[in-house]
Predict the structure.
Amino acid sequence: MIGKLNHVAIAVPDLQAASAQYRDTLGAQVGAPQDLPEHGVTVVFVTLPNTKIELLHPLGADSPIVGFLEKNPAGGIHHLCYEVADIGAARDRLTAAGARVLGDGEPKIGAHGNPVLFLHPKDFTGTLVELEEVGKAAEPEAAS
Amino acid sequence: MIGKLNHVAIAVPDLQAASAQYRDTLGAQVGAPQDLPEHGVTVVFVTLPNTKIELLHPLGADSPIVGFLEKNPAGGIHHLCYEVADIGAARDRLTAAGARVLGDGEPKIGAHGNPVLFLHPKDFTGTLVELEEVGKAAEPEAAS
């Protein structure tokens, strides 16, 4: 069911410092900060040859990552995002298997304009998992 | 400098349960457990179309991930591994930039038989970063 790893999201206390580390120290391709007020984050994309790192910083007092940074002041890996071809089918399969979808269980439009949902970390080895629908091309076996 | 994301390593308290979640619930391609006594871990590889997830479980009392699982009993993301073409050059660039290499600073042979080193999480936004030398093909710009 899951396809590519779309991105690894890392919450950071200082977006400028983290961007400089990835650009200057690690020599990666680092984009400009983008405010996503509807998601309560400012993001910087680090583009690797096979996937992306998303550096996340809180935007606004209601940011969903404020609590995470309070617990992890130096920053830390916040979630993994896997691509799926059909998020409704994914949700049905997951809930049938007993996995808990966060929120009201319905997909929302995520930071890339695609439907996303988040799974309860306790159901996935302590890892917050985001699923993002990217269309049928996400699953090689579905394209054949 | 860094190339592909080689893998995301997730420490898990129950390797069989985590393997079943990734295989049956998330529908991913999951390998058989491999004991790596020289690294103090048993690993299961989850192969995604563009990268790998490494599920890690302690092997032996001196396992380097025992402490992590004591702090994170449900499991959690342990480290990210980026590929580099030349680990000696990477180490020199990093230490010149003030980043701390764990241990004695010399690359070791990692779980895939390639030279690896680990960087101090405090220098990289709370993320434990592994660098793995995979040869010149790791950096597209170096191959041209």
Chain A has one domain: 5-143. Residues 137-144 of chain A have pLDDT under 50 and may be disordered. Residues 92 and 129 of chain A are 16 Å apart (CA to CA).
